[in-house]
Each structure stands twice: as structure tokens, then as C-alpha cells.
Specification:
Layout: H1 2-47, H2 51-94, H3 97-101, H4 103-150, H5 166-202
């Protein structure tokens, strides 16, 4: 019946909008927490004079960054699942004669689709922003601790490895490890982004 169809349409709007809003909200909180965490880490490094403890702080930041960046992959998986479900619902509505014959209702659905597309774009930007900012901050922390070594290097000559202390070697190792993991994370994000584009094309969400 028409009433049942309208009820399903209202459920469609509610169920489509809420998940994207929740993901965007979670990502916003994560991004806003970065400056606070970064300030606390710099304060700790400035107060700690023991190089072993400094390495411990860097290692803790490394583990935290990798874990949090992997959690971003879960956000991509959530987006993929929600977007695919959304596409199926849009296809079901698109194929119904009632919405084909009522331009007003169809226009409203198009507005919902456009809004979801915009939310998806924002969510992806938040994911990339969080990943980029957290990665840059980790690189900055490593550079901060390696600066006493970096400022002594004369790049016009061969590097004297005797200048590199064991602590510096540990930090360099952690830095290389972080960059290696980050490359794989970026490749994973790119793959998930392509999957979202495939879903959009599969359900023709731009052609409603």
C-alpha cells in the first residue's frame, strides 16, 4: 500500500542519514584530540632528559599511531557496508512506480542521495586528514629528537656513522618501520576508496 511505502521511505531517510552522521562525528572527535595529545607529548619530551625514556615515549606514540590509523580502516569498512546498503535501498525505491510518477517525492530522495554523497566525501576527507596529521606529527617528534644529530650532518660529505648514537639508531629504526607500515595503510585506504566508487557506479547513485 501507499502508506506502507511512505513508512518505508521515512525509515529509508532515517536509517541512511544516521550512520554517516555518527561516523563523521567520531572522526571529528579524533581529529580534535590530536593537538591535545601532541602538546602533551612535546611537554613530556621536553621534561624528560633520559634518552631511554625518550625512546620509550616515541615507541608508545608509534604503537598508538599505528593502532589508531588501522582503526581508520574499520571506518572505511563501515562506510563501505553502509554505502552498499544505502545503494540497495535507493535501487529498490528507484524501481518503484510510485516514485517514478511523483516528481516531488523523487526530488526529495535525490536531495537525500546528494546529502549522503556529501557526507561520504566529508568522512573520507576526515579519514585522510586524521591519517596525514597523525603521521606528520610522528615525523615531527622523531625529527625533534634527531635534530642534535641532523644539525651536525654535512650533506656535502659522506655521513660519519660514528656520530649516530644507539638511541639515534633506535629512533631511525622506529621511523623507518612507521613509514613502511604507513605505506601499506595508504594502499589499503586507496583500495577501499576505489570500492566506494565502484558501489556508487554499481547502483548509479549519481544518475537518480
Amino acid at each position: 500500500s501507499i502508506e506502507k511505502l511512505k513508512d518505508e521511505y521515512e525509515d529509508f531517510k532515517r536509517d541512511s542519514l544516521m550512520p554517516f552522521a555518527e561516523i563523521t562525528s567520531k572522526l571529528t572527535i579524533k581529529i580534535l584530540s590530536i593537538p591535545i595529545a601532541f602538546s602533551a607529548i612535546l611537554f613530556a619530551l621536553n621534561k624528560i632528559t633520559n634518552s631511554v625514556f625518550q625512546v620509550g615515549v616515541v615507541f608508545s606514540v608509534l604503537v598508538s599511531s599505528i593502532i589508531l590509523n588501522f582503526s581508520l580502516k574499520n571506518h572505511f569498512l563501515d562506510l563501505e557496508s553502509i554505502y552498499q546498503l544505502f545503494g540497495k535501498k535507493v535501487k529498490k525505491i528507484k524501481d518503484h512506480k510510485f516514485f517514478s510518477d511523483n516528481s516531488g517525492e523523487k526530488k526529495e530522495i535525490k536531495e537525500v542521495i546528494d546529502y549522503i554523497q556529501e557526507k561520504l566525501t566529508y568522512a573520507k576527507r576526515y579519514i585522510w586528514s586524521y591519517f596525514s596529521i597523525s603521521s606528520i606529527l610522528f615525523l615531527f617528534i622523531c625529527s625533534y629528537l634527531l635534530w642534535p644529530l641532523l644539525k651536525t650532518i654535512n650533506f656535502s660529505y659522506h655521513l660519519d656513522f660514528k656520530l649516530i648514537s644507539p638511541v639515534h639508531w633506535v629512533i631511525i629504526f622506529l621511523l623507518v618501520f612507521f613509514l613502511t607500515v604507513s605505506i601499506f595503510q595508504v594502499l589499503g585506504f586507496v583500495k577501499k576508496n576505489k570500492k566506494l566508487n565502484t558501489i556508487r557506479k554499481e547502483y548509479k547513485l549519481n544518475d537518480f
